[in-house]
Amino acid sequence: MKLSLCTISFRHHLQSIDQIAHWAQTHGFQGIELWGVHAKNLAEDIHYGSEWLSSYGLEASMLSDYLPLDAPLPALTAEMNDLCSLAHRWGTNKIRTFAGSKGSADISRLERIELVSRMKMLCKMAEAEEQQILVETHPNTLTDNPSSTLQLLEETDHPALRVNFDVLHIWESGVDPVYGLKQLRPYVSHFHFKNIESRAQLGVFAPHNVYAAAGSREGMVSLFEGAVDYRLFLREAADMMEMEASLEWFGQDVKDVLGKDCREVRRVLEPEKVIR
Asked: Are 29 and 20 in contact (CB under 8 A)?
């Protein structure tokens, strides 16, 4: 497995991209998932990009952003062009986004038709740039469960549309993650790994809370200490496909938790190897 850390995990920490890359290099990671905001803020410094990152033995696994699907078309296409340019600079062909801002049970038929139309347009743009668009399985979006995600993939019907399989959010939808992966496996290009102490605390990942510096972190736990059985999931998933994944941590003690979870993922998948 190629395992990355997310720079979003350091959004409230005074860490430079140099410090993050050095730490990732020395703690068992193969890549960095670059938050779109961070990529945009580094855009004026020509020192940073794929060659710089490769000097640490790392690659950019994905550029994670939020395409404004409900924005005027000129703004949407301009944003897509900017993200494609940044993705090329960092040497990745994966652009992560959310499938709108309404859940599958809340969106109207006409709204869904419009969203699919825009997704087709973006996929054509992505294909022209040799990029993929990864829609994340996430609540309050059109990909809030595997069935609606499959429907979106079929409606869009374009090879540039792929899936970022967020294990916790699949579980949140009420579907067993292993079963969900069996449904979506042909379309999955990346995984997000995170966990929660109990289902009652899932609200801690609501955007208005999780992105706030003063937001609650109650219930966020290390990957192998929560309600989702990642040991079982990893073993089952590894039998199905090659995996590229990111540890997505939003809580405190970022380095301690990421380092510990990275080592444990390796122990589960490579038990014959001794991890320091």
From this structure: no
Measured between alpha carbons, how far is 131 from 113 in angstroms, rounded to an integer? 23
Q: Give residue for tokens 């090329």.
A: 88
Question: What span, in angstroms and rounded, lies between the C-alpha atoms of 5 and 2?
Answer: 10
> Looking at the annotation, which residues are catalytic?
138
pTM of the model: 0.96
Axis crossing angle, helix 109-128 with helix 146-156, rounded to the nearest 10: 60
Residue in 130, 67, 145 with CA at minimum distance from that of residue 99: 67
Q: How many degrees, rounded to 5, is the angle at CA 193 between CA 261 and CA 107?
A: 160
Task: Give the three-class secondary structure for 45.
Answer: coil
Position 129, amino acid? E
Residue written as token pair 């949407």:
76
Q: What angle do CA 250, 235, 189 make, to 5 degrees?
A: 60
Task: With H, G, I as helix, E, B as strand and everything else as coil, classify residue 32.
Answer: strand
Per residue in 112-151, pLDDT (tens digit) is: 999 999 999 999 999 999 999 999 999 999 999 999 999 9
Q: Decide: helix, strand or coil at residue 246.
A: strand
Distance of CA 125 to the CA centre of its chain: 21
Cβ 221 vs Cβ 197: under 8 Å: yes
